[in-house]
Amino acid sequence: ITCVALGSFLNNKNSLIKISNFIEILKIMEISLADAEKNVICYGDYPGRSQTFKFPYSILPLHLRVVASILGDGHIHKTTGLARWTQKDVTPMYNLLQHLGFNSKPHSKNTQITIPAILPKLICNSLNIQLDDIKHAKFIDRVLLLPRSYQVQFLLSIIEDEGSIQADTYSGILIRMLDRGIITRLHYLCEKL
Predict the structure, then answer these.
(1) φ, ψ of residue 76 in degrees (nearest 5)
(2) For residue 16, what is the enclosing H or E element?
(3) I want to staple 37 with a disulfide (CB 3.0 to 4.6 A). Which of 56, 105, 171, 178 is the partner?
């Protein structure tokens, strides 16, 4: 996040102000960040790419669930954070994003959905990883350090995306992925939970 909007600024509804400038103004005016956040109406990386959501904002386990889907059948651009998730039906992800206050719409005959770039960026920032780490075992290493509720949502996302039930024996859930490091860490996460 590099910018926020406080409403109509300079008679332009889409006008954003840099967060660094916003914080400096708050210091000069002696306004707490917590009080100011209540008046922020959207965030953005640059004009034209803003997203409305409620402040104050904290990362929830469901946010991690959305971003974890990128590890499976998702794709993320390593610099912009633009992410897409592909599945036979993306309705569950659409519903989850709507629940979280994001306005992503399914496309490509309901088989793809864009994940707002802000979610991977927030998760990566909070876990101290880079955007391209989301597709690697380092992501899971950081998840293993989080509280249980975050780990559960992460694992649910992986199971929903990559899991299948052994129909012949019903002996458990099979997760098929090629990266041995990811599989090893997912196994450890399952054991831990």
Answers:
(1) -135, 135
(2) none
(3) 56
The SS3 assignment for 80 reads coil
Provide DSSP, 129-188: --GGGGGSHHHHHHHTTS-HHHHHHHHHHHHHHHEEE-TTT---EEE--S-HHHHHHHHH
> What integer pLDDT is reported at residue 143 of this predicted model?
95
Terminal-residue alpha carbon distance, the chain:
33
Helix (H, G, I), strand (E, B) or coil at 114: strand
Comparing 40 with 27, the larger pLDDT belongs to: 27
- In angstroms, the CA 132 to CA 176 distance is 21
CA 67 – CA 121 distance, rounded (Å): 10
* Distance from C-alpha of 7 to C-alpha of 148, rounded to nearest angstrom: 37
pLDDT > 70? residue 14: no
Tokens of 14: 């889409």
